[in-house]
Design brief:
By secondary structure, the chain is of the alpha+beta class. The chain is built from 13 helices and 18 strands. It folds into two domains: 228 residues, Thiolase/Chalcone synthase (Peroxisomal Thiolase, Chain A, domain 1, 3-Layer(aba) Sandwich); 153 residues, Thiolase/Chalcone synthase (Peroxisomal Thiolase, Chain A, domain 1). α1 crosses α2, α7 crosses α8 and α9 packs across α11. It is globular and about 60 Å long. Belongs to the thiolase-like superfamily. HMG-CoA synthase family.
Length: 390
């Protein structure tokens, strides 16, 4: 049975900061941000958007009535959860009006969460071929103003429908996964910002890639020449390139140029959004599929997922005939074009707007937020979500 990605959607907030201007404000050369880490714009979530609303808005654009009826499993990968008990998936299930006879759960392992969700979805479809699974990867990356990680912040979500006989990409059966208990990036329950050992995390990202790639080659017999492209989890767009460069000497110059060229295409969306943790790998895949018009059906795409702490996985997908007909390229183009740039001072003010943590209620103004699904406030310790289409 063929199982894979039948639909894929994306959402990012309507606000962004220009990285050149942020660099000037922080007293560093703009090239440090635009070339050194490879970021042009950073998406900024207003207080009316959180991981739930971002995911719901991403899913809203791709679901039809058949999907709403057949989806019987919602798996939400995030490290920006809004409740320590109730899953973000349950909120999204209600906001989208999905089949009530469904499982809805949240999974967590840093940036690896959405990949874990996909593997869970594959198992479910194998047992229940007529089912569909909604997989969500949604996060808001926050490190704080004037911190070393500030330039790698971002916000957004990717939604995917996993099913049999997928119309976009079949996920192949062979994969290699690796786990090691390390402290390269983590966020204790008492902190709203992450802790990171940047140099160590970069080293582990590359080491994990080298290990899973080596094991994958031994397991399958496939080589770099067998791949049209490799997409990476992108905490910033230069990170994946650092890993790719460590294995390029395994192949010919022609294959090297193909992989490097497709890598650059796969980073374009991420360059303009920033880090979205669990969704970053799949935003990179979406960028490749929608912006590279030369990809042919049958092309094999490698996928490297990494979640600090740490879990890494290498797996693959093969493009289906007419896959391009099932992408939302124009909608995503309009999403990017419709965003509004904010000044650095406006960004700093918005960043510091936070929800109360003392149990008090608050009502938020959602009239300035163009998103269909928004957070309207907190009442009696309960988040108040609004779907403007209802």
């Amino acid at each position: 049975m063929k199982i894979g990605i039948d639909k894929i959607g994306f959402y990012t907030p309507h606000l962004y900061v220009d990285m050149n201007k942020l660099a000037v404000s922080r007293g560093v050369e703009p090239e440090k941000f635009t070339i050194g880490i490879g970021q042009d714009r950073m998406a900024l979530a207003p207080i009316t958007q959180d991981s739930v609303t971002l995911a719901a808005n991403a899913a809203l654009e791709i679901l039809d009535e058949e999907d709403r009826e057949k989806i019987d499993y919602v798996i939400f990968g995030t490290e920006s959860g809004v409740d320590n008990s109730k899953s973000a998936a349950v909120y999204v299930h209600g906001l989208l009006g999905l089949n009530p006879y469904a499982r809805s759960v949240e999974v967590k392992q840093a940036c690896f969460g959405a990949t874990a969700a996909i593997q869970m979805a594959k198992g479910h479809i194998a047992l229940h071929p007529e089912s569909k699974v909604l997989v969500l990867g949604s996060d808001i990356a926050r490190y704080g103003l004037n911190t070393s990680g500030e330039s790698t912040q971002g916000a957004g979500a990717v939604a995917m429908v996993i099913s049999k006989d997928p119309r976009i990409m079949v996920l192949e059966e062979q994969e290699v996964c690796l786990t090691d208990d390390i402290m390269d990036f983590w966020r204790p329950v008492y902190s709203d910002k992450a802790y990171v050992d940047g140099k160590f995390s970069n080293e582990q990202y590359i080491l994990f890639f080298q290990k899973v790639w080596k094991a994958y080659k031994e397991k399958t017999g496939l080589q770099l020449k067998d791949f049209e492209a490799i997409c990476y989890h992108l905490p910033y767009t230069k990170m994946g390139l650092k890993a790719l460069r460590t294995v390029l000497d395994e192949t010919t110059e022609n294959v090297q140029e193909r992989l490097k060229g497709n890598y650059q295409i796969s980073t374009q969306y991420n360059r303009n959004v920033g880090n979205i943790y669990t969704g970053s790998l799949y935003l990179s895949l979406l960028s490749l599929l929608e912006l590279n018009e030369d990809l042919s059906p049958g092309a094999r795409i490698g996928l490297y997922s990494y979640g600090s702490g740490a879990v890494g996985e290498f797996f693959t997908g093969v493009l289906e005939p007419d896959y391009r007909d099932h992408l939302n390229t124009e909608a995503h183009k309009q999403l990017f074009e419709g965003r509004k740039e904010v000044t650095v001072s406006e960004y700093e003010a918005i960043f510091q707007e936070v929800l109360p943590t003392d149990g008090s209620s608050v009502e938020l103004d959602i009239t300035e937020d163009p998103a269909t699904i928004c957070l309207a406030g907190i009442k009696e310790h309960s988040r108040q979500y609004v779907n403007k289409n209802r």
